[in-house]
């Protein structure tokens, strides 16, 4: 008997990937290896192991891995060094997780001798692009199965019927029409679909899972300090944290005060607009803190250059181009800019808002002697400004003269 081909499936244990697992077995006759990444999504991942075993996966072919520290250290923090937001608002919580998942899919495929990988992303979304561009960047010969682009299970009703036919357990809330789809990791939660598809309708409060309603958040603010070194946060209120534990702590604080909610209509890479509800409590605090410490420690040329390249860098991440030469080149520039980004930022957290109240750094470029309204004792010659202004006005004055002639 010929040996079955092996395929490594990105497996969550939910309805979609459980059906995909069985479909790969029954329709394509593959031997399935399951990979579940713990990225801090706050779910009981042993349930995924139990589901995989129930569906006939060998114990040695089930990989459940805690990648939270790697995720924050090697993906989230490098992204935040650039103050990265997509289309002015989105902190890229889903996008930044996909390259790490793809990396491990490829590595596990190599370990078990599989020539194929599979994922549960639909043919309408961005994630199919992100998973596959990352995978091809790491293994140009890998073969990829995207069931949503191949099968005829085109609705949730058909998925449930397939599950029932093959005796796949369905969670109670999946037997009926689910209210929306959720993706989560340590950086954020993303909710979209069904009741959220009409951007004219306000999202119901129960959609928000990671943040308190700002209106019912505590009436007393919290003040915290975040300490940075080389552009990365290392301490909260003077206490050292690992990358994942630091983001977890910021999430707890942001949750308490209802920080980090976003209702966004965005432009997907595949061409359509979509509406998503995002919650990024810790990331929202981190972004404000990082910009504050950079305001002291970066010179204007470096800071403005970073602001110029940030939208391009964000677009690369959003479009799934993490493992590319251009992203690596930008990352080198960004990381170099962080050499002197160190110090402490004090923030006020209150009813959905993050306010910077103070910042200090041993590498500060801020000079009280330069900006004082009091006597600077000759440190700055205000008369120099006249020539500076006239040189900058030179072309404007010539334009004005021409206009007067007309």
Low-confidence stretches: none
Helix coverage percent: 25-40%
Percent strand: 15-25%
What is the residue-averaged pLDDT?
94
Highest CATH level, the class of the largest domain = Alpha Beta
**Secondary-structure element series:** EHEHEHHEHEHEEEEEHEEHHHEEHH
Number of helices: 12
Structural class by sheet pairing and helices: alpha/beta
Number of strands: 14
Instruction: Give the distance, in angstroms, between the N- and C-terminal Cα atoms.
Output: 91 Å
Radius of gyration, whole Å? 25 Å
Sheet bearing the most strands, described?
5 strands, parallel
**Proper CATH architecture of the largest domain:** 3-Layer(aba) Sandwich
Number of domains: 3
Instruction: Please state the overall shape, judged from the principal axes of the Cα atoms.
Output: elongated
- Superfamily (CATH H level) name of the largest domain: HUPs
Order of strands, widest sheet: 3-2-1-4-5
Query: What is the CATH fold-level name of the largest domain?
Result: Rossmann fold
What brief labels describe this structure?
alpha/beta, elongated, 14 strands, 12 helices, five-stranded parallel β-sheet, five-stranded antiparallel β-sheet, Rossmann fold, 406 residues, 3 domains, Argininosuccinate synthetase, chain A, domain 2
Describe it.
The strands form 3 sheets. A 5-stranded parallel β-sheet has the order 3-2-1-4-5, with helices on both faces. The chain has a 5-stranded antiparallel β-sheet with strand order 10-9-8-13-14, with helices on one face. The protein has a 4-stranded antiparallel β-sheet with strand order 6-7-12-11, with no helix packed on it. The protein folds into 3 domains: 150 residues, HUPs (Rossmann fold); 136 residues, Argininosuccinate synthetase, chain A, domain 2 (Alpha-Beta Complex), CATH 3.90.1260; 38 residues. 36% of the residues are buried. A hairpin with a 2-residue loop joins strand 8 and strand 9. It is of the alpha/beta class and 406 residues long.
């Amino acid at each position: 008997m010929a040996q079955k081909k092996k395929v490594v499936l990105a497996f969550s244990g939910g309805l979609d990937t459980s059906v995909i697992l069985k479909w790969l077995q029954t329709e394509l006759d593959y031997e399935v290896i399951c990979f579940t990444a713990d990225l801090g999504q706050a779910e009981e991942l042993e349930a995924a192991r139990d589901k995989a075993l129930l569906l006939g996966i060998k114990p040695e072919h089930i990989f459940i891995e805690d990648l939270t520290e790697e995720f924050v250290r090697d993906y989230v923090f490098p992204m935040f060094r650039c103050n990265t937001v997509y289309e002015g608002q989105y902190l890229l919580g889903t996008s930044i997780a996909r390259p790490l998942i793809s990396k491990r899919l490829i590595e596990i495929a190599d370990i078990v001798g599989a020539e194929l990988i599979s994922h549960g992303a639909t043919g309408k979304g961005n994630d199919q692009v992100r998973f596959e561009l990352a995978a091809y960047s790491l293994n140009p010969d890998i073969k990829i199965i995207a069931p949503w682009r191949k099968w005829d299970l085109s609705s949730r009703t058909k998925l449930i019927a397939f599950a029932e036919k093959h005796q796949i357990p369905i969670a109670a809330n999946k037997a009926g029409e689910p209210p929306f789809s959720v993706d989560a990791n340590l950086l954020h939660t993303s909710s979209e679909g069904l009741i959220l598809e009409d951007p004219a309708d306000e999202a119901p409060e129960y959609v928000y899972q990671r943040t308190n309603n700002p209106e019912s958040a505590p009436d007393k603010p919290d003040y915290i300090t975040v300490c940075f070194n080389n552009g990365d946060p290392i301490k909260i209120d003077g206490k050292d944290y690992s990358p994942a534990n630091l983001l977890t702590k910021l999430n707890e604080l942001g949750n308490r005060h209802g920080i980090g909610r976003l209702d966004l209509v965005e432009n997907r890479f595949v061409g359509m607009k979509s509406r998503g509800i995002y919650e990024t409590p810790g990331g929202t605090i981190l972004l404000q803190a990082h910009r504050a410490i950079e305001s002291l420690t970066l010179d204007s040329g470096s800071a403005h250059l970073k602001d110029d390249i940030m939208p391009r860098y964000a677009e690369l991440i959003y479009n799934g181009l993490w493992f590319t030469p251009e992203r690596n080149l930008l990352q080198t520039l960004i990381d170099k800019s962080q050499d002197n980004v160190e110090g402490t930022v004090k923030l006020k957290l209150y009813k959905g808002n993050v306010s910077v109240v103070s910042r200090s750094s041993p590498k500060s470029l801020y000079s009280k002697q330069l900006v004082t309204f009091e006597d600077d004792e000759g440190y700055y010659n205000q008369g120099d400004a006249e020539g500076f202004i006239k040189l900058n006005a030179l072309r404007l004055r010539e334009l004005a003269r021409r206009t007067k002639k007309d």
